[in-house]
Amino acid sequence: MDTVVQxxxxxxxxxxxxxxxxxxxxxEPAYEYLVIVETQPRVKEIIEKDxxxxxxxxxxxxxxxxxxxxxxxxxxxxxxxxxSFCYSxxxxxxxxxxxxxxxxxxPLTPTEIIGSTKLFREKSMDFVCAVGAFIAKHFYSATKxxxxxxxAMLKIEYTFTQRKYDTYMERIHAALIPQLLExxxxxxxxxxxxxxKYKIIVSETKGIYQSGDEKAAYSLRRxxxxxxxxxxxxxxxxxxxxxxxxxxxxxxxxxxxxIADINRLFRQETGLTHDLILHxxxxxxxxxxRDFEIVxxx
Length: 298
Fold this sequence. Notes:
The protein has 298 residues and is α+β, with helices and mostly antiparallel strands.
C-alpha cells in the first residue's frame, strides 16, 4: 500500500503541474490516477464505504422535510464535499471515455465515446473540431471514424478544463491519502506484532529453549516419548489425542498428564509465561504458534 500512495502522489503532482501550464494536458494524469485506483481493491473499498455513508447522510436530510430549495441546496453541498461523488464525476468524465477510446478494437462514434459527459461550450468546440477535421482529412489522410473519435476526445478534454474538476481531484486526493496511510500504519503494526513472537528452538541435544538463551532450556532429549510427541506436533498444525496415542504408544490419560507436565516444566525452565502445547475441542493438540515461532534445530 506504501507503493500505491507514492504512485498516487506522483500522478497528482503531475496533474497539478500540467494544470498550471496547460489545463487540457492535465486530463491524461487524471486518467492515470484513476487507473491506479481502479486496480486497487483496498482503494475501491474506501470509495464504496464513502458512498454508503453519503447515501445515509442524504437519507437523513430527506427525513427533515425541508422546503424543496433548501433540500436541493443541502444535497448539493453534501455531494460536493464527498469523496465518492467527486470520484464518480471524474470517473464518468475521464476514466470511462478515455478507456473506451484506448481499448475499443474498432473506432467508436462520438456518441459512444462521450456517453453521459456533459460537454462544455459544445457549439464553439464543434467549430474548432470541424477545422481540425478538415486539416486531418486533407493533410494527414485520416479516416472519418478516426477524425470523429479524436474530435470527441478533444471535446472531452476541453470539458475537463472547467475549474470544478480541480476541486474534485483535490477532494479525492485529500480523502484517499490519509486513509491509505492509516492502512499502511496498521499493516506495519500487525507485522511488528507478528515479528515480536518469541523464537523457540527444539534441539535433539540441547532441549527446548528460547533463541539466544540456551542455558535456560527445558532438557528433553531425543528418544524420550515426550520429545517424540513434540517432534510430531512440529510436523502438523493439529493432532487428535488418538494420533498421539499411536505415536507414543501410551494411553490417552497418560498423554494428557504428560502434556500438562511438559507445559509446566517448559514455563519453569525457560522463564516464559505461555504454554508450549495448546488444546481445543475443535482441532485437538497443537504447538503454540500464536505466541512462539517454533523451529527445529538442523
